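As promised in the previous annual report, we have extended the structural survey to additional targets. Below is the entry for Cation transporter.
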Amino acid sequence: MSDSCCESACGSETAKADPRWRRILWIALIVNAAMFLIEMAAGAAADSRALQADALDFLGDTANYAVSLAVVGAVLAWRARAALVKSLFMLGFAGWVFGSAVFAFFAGSAPDPQTMGVIGALALAANVGVALLLYRYRTGDANMRSVWICSRNDAIGNVAVMLAALGVFGTGSAWPDLIVASIMAGLALTGGFQVFRQATGELKAAAA
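The corresponding structure token record, generated without further manual editing, is:
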């Protein structure tokens, strides 16, 4: 989800041309950063790897919005360096989520489904709110459209977390939580590698 946003959002001139678009990006950045902190804390308290994986996605989106705002109009090398740092964060957190999921599998503890459901619903509301702000730009340029699609797709991920909460509640097992967490972390890991390869390639091109 997050990696597809960065490819077209970083370095766009759109934010310069439309102050309202730039304000929306700031709102989206603040909302995503806040939800990253909330979900990470709730995931640790509820022992939910799916919440932690969803928090990872919020972190990736926060980085995307920050890059969009910070390097608008910058040269390719600086945009590539920013993307490289973002990819390393994505890879690090994805690896951490995978490791914690493996630990939870052997520990055999089940997460708290109530906390998962409440925080999952809060995350869904946050992403839907951001998507509504971006809705008028859904048919704009590639940058505008990609950012809106990211928020829309993230809302789908939040629904997956809520379904995992129902699965944990119904079975009393950690399996639904671990499955959703593994899928979401796998997507983040794949996206991190893609952004890393693209960023290193752009840095080589800029140096040449």
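The first helix runs from residue 2 to 9. The radius of gyration is 17 Å. These points will be discussed at the next consortium meeting with the crystallography subgroup.
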